[in-house]
Structure formats: structure tokens, C-alpha cells
Amino acid sequence: MRSSLSTFSLLQRRRVRSGLNRIRTQTPWEWARNGAFILVGLWMLSGLHYGFWRLLSYLDGVELIGGLLIWKLTAMTLLTTFSMVALSSLIIALTTLFYSSDLKFLLRSPVGIRTAFADKALEAVFFSSWMIVLVVLPYMTALAQVKGWGPGFHAVFLLLMVPFMVLACSLGIAFTLVLLYLFPSSRTRDVLWILSSLSVALLYMLLRFSEPERLIRPDALRLVAEYLEYLQAPTAPYAPSWWLTQAVSSYAHGRWALFWREAGLLCLCALGSCAALLALAGVTYAKGYSGAQESRRQRRPIDIPPGLEHRLAAGSPVLASLYWKERKTFFRDVKHWSQIVLVAALCGVYLFSIHRLPLDTPDLKSLVCFINIGIAGFVLSSLGLRFTFPSISLEGRSFWVVRSAPLGLETLMLEKFLFSLVPMLLLATLLIAASNHLLRADRFISWLSIGTIWLLTWTLCGMGVGFGAVFPRFKVENIHQVESSAGGFAYMACALALVAVTVAAEAWPVKMHFQARFGRADAWDWDWVAACAASLVLVNAAGFILPWMLGRRCLQRYEGE
Length: 561
Known about the structure:
This protein is mostly helical. Helix content is about 80%, strand content about 0%.
């Protein structure tokens, strides 16, 4: 036992020193990039805090049921947090416990199987919960600010969040261990990815379709008053989220007996779950890890018939072959399927939110349809960061095969561009056309928005491929390392700037259009319209051509890392 603890502490010291060395060896550019990310993150957290403060301040002012509503909302928030962390730990535990790059070294070293599992399980707990805790923290700080509670409330909440997160992650880790033990195959990983993505998508859509904003409307609060008994009832009383809610509530109101009982129950269950996980890992982890490294056998001969690409691009067989290869590798990766599920859920919630906007006049609806160009452009930029920008880097260590083949880099970049352009163009058209139909925009705004989003899609796809070629990273283990790189930051900044400049260039013609609708005779100034159109074309042409040329030049000079 003492030997296992000393080995575990040694592994943690190795982890801490690795992190410190990574911080010490950062370049000035990396310091600036990380500082920018931290500032943006703090800005977003402050925005969440302000929104939660406004909501809780309003609820606190409601007579009779204000306090009940706040604690009911807190219990529901912590229950949702527990569910999301447990679901996130399924995916994180799968990759951390069975597919991490350092496992081949760790499991061959003189380290016990339970010690190695504990080291990787601790890593899975951290990566499964840190982002969700950061989102919940502004809510709790806003609650303490509204109620006037001091720093002791924050300290108690943060301390109790540790066993709370351990319990949530233990469920996901235990399920992953049992699943890989019973079905030791890499195909189990694929099924788990799909099921997890479907669960997240359904939870996200159900949460939005329930229209939680109706609870804070004054006319809805009169209905809520009829459910005092429901508000006073426990929310999932046997779940750790209710124990945490009771603990922080009893601490805030000075009910010390209840506080120690609920906090002790939470900590004891967390310790018990850790012991149970270690016992379960001793039986299942080795077999599950061994089976997860196996691949599926092909029991029939592989036949590669001429595909749709070869029939459509009969004059360019090289481009058709590259497109066929890209399509096959894309759909073989189950992570892409899970991303497609989440994108579909995002589109459903996006259109539902557009449909539920409280707009009264047709002109206001048309104006919102014009502003919707910027929102759709932001969505396309985010999708470009996830799919288009990493496309060059996803060639990975086999890039030398494409580089030594008898084809030009222009052909490779063109294939990447076309492969991203088709689905993104369809998605952009769906978002804009459906939004215009739901809001019944006038004909001018409808055609302007569709034409603009087509132009933006074309430019953003070319910009994504170009920046991906300027900042290639062929030796990464995870696609998220490509997205969060300096190139990803530069691409996202330029993409958002392009969207902003495009919408700003069209603001003057749209203003003239509404002035004409309001009856102004000389509303249209065609010199200004021509200037806006010329600036729109020039900005988008520069956004496409400059990254494309720089990317092609950088790939030609690339000699390996």
C-alpha cells in the first residue's frame, strides 16, 4: 500500500513538473496567445456572471416564492451539471484510460495496474469537469452576491465541488471500464462516441425546447405560484446534486447539523466510489485496455469501384481520387459523426430560437434577418475552425505520400476547399433561407442575405484552407491541438473580422432600403451602393486570395518538423 502511494505521488510530481516546464519554455508569442485566450475567457465569465446576477436579482424580488425559485433553480443547475460531467467523463475516460499516448510507456514500467489507472483516472476527472465548473462558478458567485454571503460560502462550495465532481466522473469511468471489459474492441469506442453525442444533442435540444425563459416572465410567475408544493419538494433527493444543494443552503442559513450531515454524506460516497473504482480496475482494466488496441478484421476482399467523384470529375481523375480519399477518411472517423450530430442539434436550436423571437412588425423582422447574416457567419467561422482549418494538418504523417505524388499542392488545396465548400454551402443556405421564411423577410433582404452568405461561405472555406496551409501541424495526437494553435486563433480572428466588415459594408444599402420603405423619395444613392459593393468584393477577394497564396507558398517550403 505504501509503495503504491509513493509511486502515485511520484507520477503526480512528474505531471506537475511537466506542466511547469511547459510554462517556462513558452515563447513570447505563446505567452501573448494564451494571455489573449485568458482575457477572452474572463470576459465571457463576467458576462455569464452579469446575466445570472440579473436573473437571480429578479427572482429574489418576487414575493413569497422568490427564495423557493432560487433554490429550485440552483438544484436544477447542479443536477444538470452532475449529468453533464457524468456524460463528459464517458468520452474523456475512453480516450484517457485506453488511448493516451503515454499508456504504452506507463503500463510497461514497474507500476501497478491500479496505480496507473488512478493516475489516468485523476486526469480524466480533471478534463471532464474543469470547464463545466468554470460555467457553474459565475452562477454561485452571483447567488452569493444577491444574497450578501461572504467568501466562506465560496470556499465551502469549492471544497464540496471536489467530491461532487469525483462522484459524477466515477459513474462515467465505471461504465467505461465495464463496457470495455465486456466488449473489448475498438468498435465499442465508436458506439460510445455516437451514443454520447446523441445524448448531449438530445439534452441540449430538450433544454432549449422547454423554453426556460418563460419561468421569469411576470405572467408565468402567477402560474408558478400554484406549485409551491412542487418548489418545496426535493429535486432528485437521492442524487449527489441534491446533497450539495442542501449542504450549501444549510451553510448559508446556519443549519449546521444538516450541513455536516449532507457534506459528510457527499464526501463518504466520493471516497467509497474511489475505492470501488480501484477494485473494479484491478479486475477489468488490463483486459479492456488490451482489447481496445485491436482493430476490426476485414473478412472480405476490398473492392474499390469508380465512385461518384470519378463520374462527376471525369476530366480530372487526380482531383476525383483525392476527393474520394477525403470522403472515405472523413466518414471512417466516428468523431466526425458525433460532430455532425451536434451540428444538427445546433441548427435545430438555432432555427427554434429564430422562430420564438418576439417580433411584431414586418420591418423589424426583415432587419433581424439582415443581422442574422452576422450570426450565421459566426456559426460558419466556428465550423470552419473545426472542419476546414485542420483539413491540411489531418494528412498527418502521411503528408509525405501526397507531397511525393505526381500532383501539385494547388490540386490538394483545391480538393480540401471543395470538400468543405459543399456541406457548408448547404448548411448556410438552410440557416438563412429557413430564417427568412420563418420571419417572412421582404424580398430584397431575402436575396441579399442569401447572396451574402454564399459569398461568405466561399471566402471562409478558402481562408480556412489557406490558414491551415500556413500553420500546418502534422504531428499532433488530437485535432483539438490544431484548433487551439496559433494558426487557429489567427484564422478565427480574421474570419470574424471578415464577417464584421461584410455586414458593415452592406449596412448602407440596407439603410437606404428601409428609408425607401418608409416613404423617402431620394433614399437610394447609387454612388454609395457602388462603393459598398466594390468594398464587399475587394474584402472577400483579399480574404480568399491572400491566405491561399501564402498557404501554397508555405506548403511548398515545408521540410518537416
